[in-house]
């Protein structure tokens, strides 16, 4: 509706609405997180979870309104029809941009409980948002360099302990655990540095996903496998959205079937660990093939449209 406005105006408008929405939704979450510490009773915790879900839904639908208000987005949606999830579930996805969080929430809006993400430790310092994530019980993981891990191997177990704790809370309180298995956003430069064999993806990291499945895999309603792309805004998609210039969003949602290759003892069973890593790589092979087919098709369609315009 307002996509015709100049980008600077749309940027200010979007940033203002998103910031206000985030602050207003974060305040009650932070307040009730303190109440939870003071009164850690089941009745209180269930009530707080209910309030958190309301705040989350308000934030999600506000972002959906912004997308519709300031961007002319072509939505290419493939895969399953998303069911209403009654209990807890998990989502794994590739990671391109900060926009992924808004797009995932938009795609699953009204269908899943409040989302929780594996976040980098330094994100806790983002004003309001960081404390709200703490209040929602999101797991914060600290990445250590190989040099530090060699000096102190015990550091590796800290992230494992954080993951296990977050997973137990996931079952106690109806939630959706989102795992960007690549551990970082995809860029061509990062992919080359990581020697990625994929054209559109970073290599997946198995640890947190494997531990989550070993702890609660059999207690989840379902696991969704999501593939994302922004064909016309492959770089800085979040900035494009804020400026009202997000053109196209591709989302594919599939179920990830649970079997013996996905649920087992990742820390102690070496054979299972090897099989799990290979299975996750197969999932990423399929995801990369899907993106290759779609992106090549999109380029072909764009060329045909341009040829038709030239003919006219």
Can you offer a commentary on this structure?
The protein starts with 6 loop residues before the first helix and ends with a helix. The protein is about 55% helix and about 10% strand. The strands form 2 sheets. The protein has a 6-stranded mixed beta sheet, with helices on both faces. It has 10 helices and 8 strands. The protein is globular and about 55 Å long. The longest helix is centred in the C-terminal third of the chain and has 42 residues, at about 270-310. The protein has about 300 residues and is α/β, with parallel strands linked by helices.
Number of helices: 10
What value does the Rg take, in angstroms? 20 Å
Would you count the extended β strands for me?
Answer: 8
Q: Termini separation (Å)?
A: 28 Å
**Major sheet summary line:** 6 strands, mixed
In order across it, which strands form the biggest sheet?
1-8-7-2-6-3
Percentage of β-strand residues: 5-15%
Net shape? globular
- What's the helix-strand series? HHEEHEEHEHHEHHEHEH
* Uncertain runs: 302-312
Mean pLDDT: 87
List the helices and strands and how they pair.
Elements lengths: L6 H32 L3 H29 L3 E6 L9 E5 L5 H9 L7 E3 L1 E2 L8 H7 L4 E2 L4 H6 L3 H18 L3 E5 L7 H6 L13 H10 L5 E8 L7 H6 L5 E8 L14 H42 L1
Parallel strand pairs: 1-8, 2-6, 2-7, 3-6, 4-5
Antiparallel strand pairs: 7-8
Helix pairs in contact: 1-2, 1-4, 6-8
Brief characterization of the structure:
By secondary structure, this protein is of the alpha/beta class. It is built from 10 helices and 8 strands.
